[in-house]
Amino acid sequence: MTGVPAPRDGSVTRQPELPAPRQVLEGERVLRVNWLPGSDRLRGLCHCGAEAEASDPVEMWEWLLAHPDHPADGPTEPPATGPLPTPPAHLVTDPLVIIRRVPVPA
């Protein structure tokens, strides 16, 4: 069952035969960007064999598409802005904890 209804006249509709899917494209000018599992990093591979890592996908594609003039050390990473800000205070939203609170007289 393909989910396609059969024609009313009883004729048989043949589905086109598709080639088997490939895992990766082949060719001399293929550019690849792979995510590095467990991180926020991307690895780009140019068809010339150059490889680079970056965290910004736009920077990675700009680096790849700049062939043959892409920098050998990879895309320019923006400077680190320092430590992350302190997260906001934790709010208790568990109804059982809220019910057990002692009311404060006004």
How far apart are the first and last residues' alpha carbons, in Å? 70 Å
Strand content bin:
5-15%
The biggest beta sheet is recorded as: 3 strands, antiparallel
Q: What assembly state would you assign to the polypeptide chains in this entry? A: single chain
Broad structural category: little secondary structure
Task: Reconstruct the topology from this structure.
Elements: E1 32-35, E2 42-45, E3 51-54, H1 57-65, H2 95-99
Walkthrough of the structure:
This protein has about 110 residues and is low in regular secondary structure. It contains 2 helices and 3 strands, in the order E-E-E-H-H. Strands 1-2-3 form a 3-stranded antiparallel β-sheet, with helices on one face. The longest helix has 9 residues. The N and C termini lie far apart (about 70 Å).
